Protein 1
Amino acid sequence: MTKETVPSYASVGQQTHGQEPIDRTYSDHPLYPNGIHARTGRPLLPPIRALDVAAKIFGQPLPAEILEVERVIPPNLDWNDLRQTGWGVIFPEDIDPKVEEALSELLKYREAAARGPMFKRFDYPAGASARQFLAQFEVGPEVIDPEIVPYYLLIVGSPEEIPFSFQYQLGTARGVGRLHFEVPEDYRRYARQLVLAETQGVQRPRVVTFFGVEQDPTTHRSVAQLVAPLAERLIRQAEGWGVRTWIRGDATKERLGKILSGEDTPGLLVTTSHGVGYDSDDSLQLSRQGALLCRDKLGAEKGPALVSSEELLCGADIPPAADLQGLFAFLFACYSAGTPQLNDFVHENGPEKIADHDFVARLPQRLLRQGALGVIGHVDRAWTCTFSWTEGGGQVNTLETVLLQLLRGHRAGHAMSFFGHRYAELATQLTEAWENSRQGKVSVQDGADFLAWLWTAHNDARNMVLLGDPAARRVEVEP
């Protein structure tokens, strides 16, 4: 077979990497899913060959949401000045008045910063896509006019009320975050601590802490191809910041508990581990789905085993007195931000029911309640293609850019836009590959493996979301 090449994805703000062969590179290189089933101790999914995925999706109609994604070139704005970018909040039409009242301090604070006219309050029309929502204001998906629809948009409510898909689509071009708590008082607590953090500054140490569990081939890749290169790059580029790593045998639940107790809490925390999953009829799913598994081995000698609470870092493990004010956290794990009702990744069984309904994970909810400014995590299963494009090694440019934006005091929603750019870039390449297959320019044997790889990487990039106010940023105490 003649070896062909296709462009690698563009790493935002960095030189594009070299060309990548589409034959053996993708067909023989498996897709590694993250996640462990809590009741069996087995992987949620085994490694899957790209060709096996391609057999399920090749030749089917391309979803409309992919056709609508465009690479956005934003206008020349100061992303930190809300008077230029605007700030808006999107509530469900039937929002509990107690929730809106609980957020009143944050809403007034943002309205003052945006100088009135650039502050907007929206009601979400039930069932609307991002395109339909924007069409109400005669705004297309590629247009950013902050005087009509602000750049920073905070979604308030559960993903049952305002779907994850709406957040994905809106976040391609804008800085978008979500807040959802079970009780109004937690909204009030988050709003109070965020306003204090920005008006009075925080004294959180200028330290980036990496916590990397290594227990199997998937998490080995996370430590070797995500933690190691990111830590090295931040040591060089994050001026004035220290870098601390807890990996392998040092990445224990006890250690992570201390990191999140308030005393050893850094300014930025990056964790890589399996997130545990439960069946939809399991009574523990809502409280523990996406909890971080801190087991150092998966029982290779004795076989898979039930995951115990002593090995899981759950929301309930964060002390109610923990002071996490000023923390940003990036949790790379399955379900670390939330769980959809149906999975977003095609495999041998096709779409399957994961939960009775969409929901936000309890661990990031607890971190935000205790003062964290924002939590970046994954909805549904996480895959190593987030940082590992081929067997040749990790490509962490996008992740590096996002973290550096946060460390330099930029707003979280703008930092997250680099994930949106990656999603849009992958969608563009996926559309091209799909059209080539439909037109007979590439055969299943020669190109479907790459098509399947793009499909998985595209969904994986899309499902990385921000929980918290997208305008949140680190403001340090003046010396």
Protein 2
Amino acid sequence: MTDLSAPFPDAGPRRQATIFVAGLGGRKPRVPVDAARLETSAQRALSPEAFAYIAGGAGLERTVAANRAAFDQWRIVPPMLRDVSQRDLSVELFGTRLPAPLLLAPIGVLEMAHREADLAVARAAARLGIPMVFSSAGSVPMETCAQAMGGSPRWFQLYWTKSDELAASFVRRAEACGCGAIVLTLDTTMLAWRPRDLELGYVPFIRARGIAQFTSDPTFRASLAAPAATEGLELKPPLTLSTITAFAEMVRRYPGGLVEKLRSGAPRAAVRRFLATFARPSLTWDNVATLRRMTKLPVLLKGILHPDDARRAVDHGVNGVIVSNHGGRQVDGAIAALDALPHVVAAVGDRDPVLFDSGVRTGADVFKALALGARAVLIGRPYVYGLALAGEAGVREVLENLIADFDLTVGLAGCRTPREITREMLVRASEGT
């Protein structure tokens, strides 16, 4: 088993001391510690389009609200007088011991938050030994991020487009650049109705943002010469300064020399092909079986909410499931991910690890998810807010704060390791003790 744990000894008290000593010198944290202030500070730093894309959810955003409300329905009951002076936050996943039960969720179009985008996140993750899950909608090719991470763990999140050949190419590239698992996202076979984006008339992909995994892929680039590259959305908006600027963005983001890009028309063809290819509403369990045959890496399914789907996933030979509703971005009024978690855990049993995301903001949230059966938790929007505020350093500070908060919660709840966190430590808010 690979051991990358480099544990965080006394992470909570050490982080507190660092902040308080800096405060003695008149320096306050540049990245807010409070989750609500972190979001509002990021909103001020981001463009309206960027904040809408990152923070927004589907429809009336009832699922976004439900994700947070679900955590409030559980209360921690801390037992007293336990020796928790020595704590070890590490967990084991697929033969690798990680320093904490945390991963960075795959989030696309990170260039909307910071110019260094995925690369800044990759460096921050590597510095702490926290796995980053590369997004199919990344702004930086996976190979570039992998090189920056060295031996630190990383996974790859696969959006299975209409092209099976492209899916296979993505998997081969993920294997070649040292990814330790493939995460197939199930809940985004189409983009949901997202009013914040629609009211601004803005989607990043049409400006060639968030398609770096595609434009760096040999299979995708080879497909641009085919007539089908012009299928889908016809990019014929009225000629305005805005459309000229958007076209310039397309050209700038597409790899290669300027003259060749202008001569070939490849940048606009790439955007058209992406828009025509990305959505895959025909995705079925047959694709899961194909993916299982395609790679020897562990395969996890992300977007599982129903216990029947969890059981079926295990039957298809996957290695884990991620309970997630995409942070409320896909189905308005969907079940809160935390409400689904115990039922999925019961369905899977001890056959595969169950991971969790959607709505995690604090160390107490991580604790509750683990108490309800998750092996580890994926953190999403908060690290993007840190990225927007201070780049790589901002991501690292958000993670350090979350790890410190979790460490203190673990100890104050009478635990020394994540393994000691159990369902018996929680009660429903309506039940009391």
Protein 3
Amino acid sequence: MAMVDLATQSDGRPVALADVAERQEISLSYLEQLFGKLRRGGLVESVRGPGGGYMLSRTSDDTRVSDIIMAVDEPIKATRCSPGSPEGCKSNKSRCLTHDLWEELGNHIYLYLCSVSLADVVHKRVLGRSGHLLHQFRPNAPLAVVE
């Protein structure tokens, strides 16, 4: 939400995190932590002094949602297990019966987020992508997407 706000508000000028926090109803201290990670990840630049704040370091077309998630160290996983670990999440270290299902879901989520740019979100080009696919697999199901 904060990165979309930044993309829509900056117009080539730095945006104060306090303004983002107020518009998006997000804790300022939490945003400061996130933007430190985003800066270290090369997704935003900070400008100090009066009129300072944050700007995108690259265009919103060149910023993938997956880049943002990875920069703030948010894991994309649907299992309790550690990704890639041979040990499972059960008390005897074995994997649950549905482990592969949920691990593959996490992989699909990551691939989807790689396909969506910040510009796609800003310009509302995300809605409708999955509804058409769902309808192809379940032809008698009503479309969940209103266009």
Protein 4
Amino acid sequence: MAQPKRRWSKRRTGMRRSTWQLENKNVGTCPHCHEPILPHTVCSNCGYYNGKEVIAKKAVNED
């Protein structure tokens, strides 16, 4: 197996790793309840997706 002839400098290693950074997530808002959600997902707060109720949420009774 081939071995490197000499050690890589810290600068060269850092330049190679400079593209490893994370990207920001695309966060939108739910048009029904205006909570932040990821695109193309059902809103976990109200259960709506694309203007339709997909998941029925129970109403909280304050007794």
